[in-house]
């Protein structure tokens, strides 16, 4: 239940925080169909918020040369963790 809420929050956050200069964007499972996967990246941190998770995933995706990413796992608590699949 928490994971679904986090993923929904991240999706909304990506829409609200998306800037015109950003080269990497978050997509959903339907948008990922037909795209070529480049692997995954993960981020973890203690005591932060979902926006930080989104920004860290986007930064890692951009560093790897991805054009988009899809969150495939998210956990929260005292420590949060997220994994995203990268796409060309």
UniProtKB/TrEMBL annotation:
Sorted UniProt keywords: Signal
Cytoplasm keyword on record: no
Domain YdgH/BhsA/McbA-like: 35-88
Xref: Gene3D superfamilies: Flavin-binding protein dodecin (3.30.1660.10)
SUPFAM superfamilies assigned: YdgH-like
Signal peptide: 1-22
One Pfam family it belongs to: YdgH_BhsA-like
Cited PANTHER family: OUTER MEMBRANE PROTEIN, OUTER MEMBRANE PROTEIN-RELATED-RELATED
Annotated NCBIfam families: stress_YhcN (NF033776)
Name of the protein described by the UniProt record: Peroxide/acid stress response protein YhcN
Species this protein is from: Scandinavium hiltneri
Source organism phylogeny: Bacteria, Pseudomonadati, Pseudomonadota, Gammaproteobacteria, Enterobacterales
């Amino acid at each position: 239940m928490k994971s679904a809420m986090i993923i929904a929050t991240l999706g909304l956050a990506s829409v609200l925080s998306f800037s015109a200069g950003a080269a990497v964007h978050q997509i959903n499972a339907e948008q990922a169909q037909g795209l070529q996967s480049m692997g995954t990246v993960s981020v973890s941190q203690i005591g932060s918020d979902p926006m930080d998770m989104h920004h860290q995933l986007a930064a890692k995706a951009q560093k790897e040369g991805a054009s988009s990413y899809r969150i495939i796992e998210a956990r929260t608590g005292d420590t949060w963790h997220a994994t995203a699949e990268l796409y060309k």
